[in-house]
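Why does residue order matter? Because the sequence determines the fold. Keep that principle in mind as you read this record.
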Amino acid sequence: MTQAATAKAQLTELDEALHEALPGGKRVTVQFNPESLKLTFANQIQNNNTRSNGGSAAGGSGDQAQGTQGRQFVGAGTTKLAVQLWFDANAVDQGGDRIDDVRRLTQEVIYFITPKEASSDPTKFLPPGVRFAWGSFLFNGLVDGIEETMDFFSPEGKPLRATISLTLSQQTILVSSFSDSERVAGRPRTPGTSPMTPAAAGSTLQGLAAVAGAQWQHIAAANGIENPRLLQAGQLVDLSARVPQEPF
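Structure:
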């Protein structure tokens, strides 16, 4: 039985409002999907408590309450995404010729941190907006930083393998959308034909299968899941799926 190929994550250049794909903008499909995605949520809090340290320590609970009241939310929350991408020049074949330097691949990602002239003001330079998309996971923002590590070299001293640690941020708290999660990445489904079970944060396919009284290997194959120990929170899984038996 032939399984559908797993969808690859993509980086897409956005307009300056960070809402829509920029017509004619840069699009990069990753060479290897990341093993995990790390999200960091933060709020900007300001402490307005001007009470001096010489105040009375007798009313402990009162002081604690006043300290809490002195804190003020002063700005929109932020969300940061950290992802690690791998590149291997030996794994790419362009017209029968191997790529001689892995930086020919990584420069496609470094493009997203390189400032360019702003369309709204030619005197200003801004890094391009970028959307990281992988299946139902979407993140629009700006690249904060890139760390590139080259760890394998040819006899001529050219780097052949590299790892990029990519950090993006957006000036809002990311709200997950599951409008596209009825379809397993890389495997189209007909809506409404199968009951879907949302994966809780930290859950594994083995655990979900055990509750359903099914074999997790069959469910993984039928749903196109590569890593049964790494399910995205909210990912919809068809626990009734079974791999058809192939004739001998």
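The helical segments are 60-69, 103-110, 205-212, 216-223.
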